[in-house]
Specification:
Length: about 140
């Protein structure tokens, strides 16, 4: 099991809403990173669709996950991921190769948007910046 998490949106401590902030504060930053894919503006939060052949990169940060099984459970709850029923989950946690800016590639947990983004606007290939006040996620 990976002990690393690639974060590109509201799981970043700089953007975390109060409901998940205490959990993400326990993550330890390893460094800036990127992965091939598309990042969509879904309103209150972004959604990533990872694709190794995409010409765009999603920028983010890799964090080390402390040895505490509750952390992944809390992150899964926040992201609307139910491991026993991934088809119905809003986001799915999966392992992906992520390239650290410092060079190495790590297999990291990432949360992939599990719906059709429809006409959602693409976020440019730069780090995500929250545009509006964060409110509690209703999934």
């Amino acid at each position: 099991m990976s002990r690393y998490l690639f974060v590109y949106g509201t799981l970043d401590p700089k953007h975390a809403p109060s409901e998940i902030a205490p959990t993400v504060a326990k993550l330890r930053p390893l460094g800036k990173a990127s992965v091939q894919g598309l990042l969509y503006d879904l309103g209150e939060y972004p959604g990533a669709v990872f694709n190794g052949s995409a010409k765009r990169k999603i920028s983010g940060t890799v964090f080390r996950i402390p040895d505490d099984p509750q952390i992944l459970r809390q992150l899964d709850d926040y992201e609307g991921f139910t491991p026993s029923d991934p088809r119905k989950s809003l986001f799915v946690r999966e392992l992906r190769p992520v390239k650290l800016a410092a060079g190495p590639v790590l297999r990291c947990w990432v949360y992939t948007y599990n719906r059709d983004p429809g006409t959602a606007q693409l976020i440019p290939a730069r780090p995500y910046r929250r545009k509006r006040p964060q409110v509690s996620r209703q999934r």
